[in-house]
Fold these 3 entries.
Entry 1:
Amino acid sequence: MNDSNMKRFLIIGAGRQGCAVAAFLLEQFDSTAIDFVDCSAEQLSQAVKLQKDASRVAIHELCVSPVDDALRELMSQSACVISCVPYRFNVELTQASVAAQAPFCDLGGNVGTVAAQLELDAECKAAGIAIAPDCGLAPGLLNILAEYWSKDWDYKSVRLYCGGLPQNPTGVMNYALTFNVCGLLNEYLDDCEVSRGGMLEIVPGMSEPERLNDLALPGEFEAFATSGGTSRGAKDYATKGVDYIYKTIRHPGHRDVIVAMWEMGFFDTKPSTHVSANESYELIPWDVSGSIMEKNMPSDGHDLVVARAAVEGTKDGQAVSGQINLIDYAVDRFTAMERTTGFPTAIVAASLAGLYEEHPVEPGARVPFQFMNPKLVIDELQRAGINGISIR
């Protein structure tokens, strides 16, 4: 194929999530190419090895911040810029991408960062491009799935549940880390936005626990409020008078351990003085606890993701309810968390780049559930081998 017909996607961050995004774009489309940017030559080399067709992959060893001329040039040639680096870089990268008139999306997860990105709406429209922070599994995919019935129903409530779990759980926590421990603890401990009775409310992290025993994964589980998966959901649904909450799924007893550690100060972020063998020293409990958790809860790569979007409402004056359940397992090169995070992000990027001609995206700054077609996303995930999606 003539290179001029190729859609080039710029993936910033050559880690495992970025590799999963690239794999979807390369394997589901014949007219795509990938430019990987990372500051690590080793990471870039590994990213190439993970792709089945490396002939359409180029690598660029560059720093992400500050954005330099070389990165700006790559952005200007891109059909879509995809940030797979920590959220602290995303405002600067978004601004540079908009200045280069290139569509942009990222993995999101931080409310303040996303709010700053959405303020670029006017600049996006002037540049004739769309940007979409908050992609991935949650806040991205799960909020998109919740919109499945929105054109036909008057929604009354939306309840979202999601968990990344080990296939072979062990220990009192029954958990293995599938992403950065700091991100995990932020989701657990930060306050959470919910919508109730048309009002936006704040509830504590890990509050409102409940038991679930009818998921796509057999057995009993617990779920509790966390901050990572809401995106704009609580805010947007509150304006429509729709109740909304997002909860994380874990094996029973997991929450009690984390709450006990929290209450005893294991996650304090201020330095504290300790005495041992007549010697005093200072430490930050959060850093020590996070390091110990990271060391003792490593993932073996054999994980699963289980999730649910549950909606209640009315249609033609009659009460209706629906659920979309998802389960996915580690396959081949990628974990379930990488597949269910990277593939939805790639679908959003493909949409922004115009690869789905039947679903054009208007210029502006929005999060994915505000414009993505849920059926398209489900169809594309199934085409890529994520078959554990059921609608009822």
Entry 2:
Amino acid sequence: MKKNLTIFVCLSLFLALVSNARAQGPDGDWVSSISCQNLDPDNAAEIKITFYAEGSGSPSTSYNDTIPAGSSRNYNTGDALMGVPADFSGSVVVSSLKSVVCTVNTRNAGTGTSENPYRIASISGIDELEVASVIYAPQVMKAYYQWNSYLAVQNASDSTVTVQITYKNRAGQDLPAATETASILSRSSEIFYQSSNPGLPSDFIGAAKVTVTNPAEAKIGVVVSFYNAGDDSGTSQFHSYNGLSSGATKLYMPRVVRRFYGYNSGITVQNVSSVETTVTITFNFAGGSYTYHSGAISPNSALVLYLPNVSEINAVDALPIHQRFGNAVAVSDNPQARIVGIINEDNRGNPNDNNGNPIPVERVGQGSTYSAIPAGSETKSLYFPQVMRNVEGIFSGGFYISNVTNSAGVCDIHFDGVPDAKINDVAIGANGSLSYYAPDIPNVPDGFNAGVRVYCTVEFIGIQNFAAAPNTAKLGDSFTQNNGFNK
């Protein structure tokens, strides 16, 4: 039987202490948790979680477990049973003879006050088909309005690899003085902090490309994190996203917002081809459609949009505030060019809706990122490893699915370990969407922190999220979003 290997690039597996390398990133003590879901509805999955410290080609420790058929498990690296060394920073490989998918949350030890805000970000596990010899990072920053970023690069090969990182600014200009190189041992990782790169100017925002230079056929995975200053809860935004290995001529963006209870989206689209292109983005809000046409995007360069500044969708501001969310589709106008993208969403505390709608204090300072979904990757089954309902009396979340076909369909939704919560034969319209918030779903119990499986008669895509609920006094960035797994 083929071995399914899920590779994590765990950017910040920091436990009790702060390492020297860690001092270059966002302040605080950090810890990670891993959520894994067994996709086999009939058989248990034996898994092995192996930890590799940054700069070491030998495992630090490993942990074995069994995930029951069609079920999920959560693993906290601070749990003594996991055996992860204190002050660990590195990468993880999760392996199994069954198909599994996993996500990783990385959070600080903030208490959730304005002076010591909570901060968390989430990524999806990178499986053995997604690692590549070239990875693209559409958005990186250095001292850009107090925002900085870093790249965690993991060697997915069995021998040492050499990688090179090149940068372009938002005008598409190369920055050769900023080029970085490093050798990375097998399964290990290296973190590249843009704030420590003297070749990058201050106020930099642009794109990066990570290339394996030796041996050329070796594979890597990349995770990118970017973060605000974190001086208080209003500047606590902490985002992470997976680097992208290949592009498409069409990208789906299931959720975008503009002046939605203080939340706004940003979209970054990178041209990963050797030819120039322009991009057409169609926005859909409350039944209305709006079209944006970009200028030229040179090879490896990125288009950066902040939705409040996109004049083509100004009419959205006239909608009731609860309708200012929608979706978007980006298309490369040059059929020879391929694009990748990410979607950011954050809350800076100002609804700008002229109606005086208050913003719950728990929402101010939140931020998250997910990856645009390339056309052709949609399937009839989708998996979300971690959905929450009133966990610790604080955290709840849900999921959002979107039919990308011109045909109507029906879906069945399963909640791991709670068969009574199953939702049968729910209709999804042609090019329609469904949104679910766990606290609103009958028979899902408080404390639910597990996986969800969705099966539809049409091809679809989706994302999952969670955050601290209003009136829980958890201030800072508790908001995460990441892609569901189309399998």
Entry 3:
Amino acid sequence: MSAGRLRSICLLAALVCSAATAAGGGTRHSVAADTGLSTWEAEAEGVHLRLTQISPEQARAFMLGRGMDRQSVEEFAHACVFMTVVRNESDAPIEHDLTGWHYLAQDGTARPMLTKYDWLTRWQPRNFSAPLKLAFEWSQFPVSQTFSPGDWNQGMTTFALPAGSRFDVLYRWRQNGKLHEGKLQHVQCPASFD
């Protein structure tokens, strides 16, 4: 193959990759070579969001390791679980509230995320011990928080979707009294919850 033809193929590949990123609204997708788990990232107005799949095995191990009962563990592991990271890379504080975030399922309906309060309300009749409740709460992404410039946080988030489902996340925050929104597109739940 000639050097000119090779350059043309490389240029075409770069254009296709660039178009795929643009079509995703700036969403970047990567797959970890060691685990096969996917990560999606997007940035809007200096606010960066990253979601990384948590396998059902990882979710089970984490919750069992904190002493959660098997029924609750399975309910959690059969939700679509992600490690979520938010960074404020802007020059002013932001305020986020997960109750204002939504995800768009494949059928086009907007649904609220499951927060740690949703889970604790569901599990309330099970009378979890105080240490177990605290461990669960601290593992979840905060429902509301203020991020100064440069601040970041991480925790688990969950979506009530079947294995393998694709969806978009609409994330919102307030900055200088104004509501802002970003979109993370083409996110996918782990292929199996078994």
